[in-house]
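Appendix C reproduces, verbatim, an entry submitted by the partner laboratory led by Prof. M.T., so that reviewers can inspect both the input and the predicted structure.
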Amino acid sequence: MGSAFEFVLVANLDEGEHLLDDCIAEVKRIEFLLTEFSSSSQTALLNQSAGKKSVCVDEEVYLLLSRCKEITRLTQGAFDITACALKKLYNFKGESFTMPSDKAIRETLQKVDSAKIQLLKNHEVLLTEQGMHIAFGAIGKGYAADKVKNLMISKGVHSGVINASGDLTAWGSREDGLPWKVGIADPANPSTILLWLPIFNSSVATSGDYEQYFELDGERYSHTIDPKTGKPVKGIKSVTIVSPSGELSDALATAVFTMGVEVGLHFIEQLPHTHALIVNDRNEITMTRHLKLNLHETINH
């Protein structure tokens, strides 16, 4: 899925290696279903058939699509797995950048809307518009982490961490009984830790622009595209979400990044057992009321 996974399990040495193999196999199984980087995945088959015919998918893919549509509704369109069509208009990795024309954005927006994903009977799925493109990049890592966690718990592993390219899902506690700790990277210097966050039976996901962004006319734009306007988001450097689910944390980090600081914080405050920490483009930190932090010793209170 274009992501590096790391697994940490508190288990007996004689069974640990087999358990780690099970973790790897489960991620590979999910990758085979969801990846964009294979022409034979169910995601690829759906994109190839957009506007032409429905595709029969596995039940878990069908249910994941249903939850994606529900998160789109819940976030009023700030999260949308069809928005990846817009990213094709932008080059975030080149040395120079040109904003696409309003006409190109308008035309592409016609292919962006989760309502155009039709969930039919017998696990049949139809993307109604030709040129539609779905991708699970904003939710797939978290979904895979949840599946691995549940698999390990079913095998009697009472404690562990799944690191999905920096997004962490943890359960239980460390071998010494202390909680797992997640380091939140400083958007201004990603190689350093801004603060430490202790977690217990939670998932932490961060959406940040420190790896892919561009500056135009003195303004900094992130690689996250607003599905409603078709334009890159600005004003935020990173969003970290803590929730009971890797899938939900992953999706909401993208959604809140798009919503902005004020709307995003208000939205997360309405959700049970869910918290947010946001760093804006002036490196100011804001967070939801009940998020408890162990700040790194180098940070001034």
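The helical segments are 13-34, 42-48, 59-74, 84-87, 102-109, 140-154, 246-259, 261-269. Additional entries are available on request from the coordinating office.
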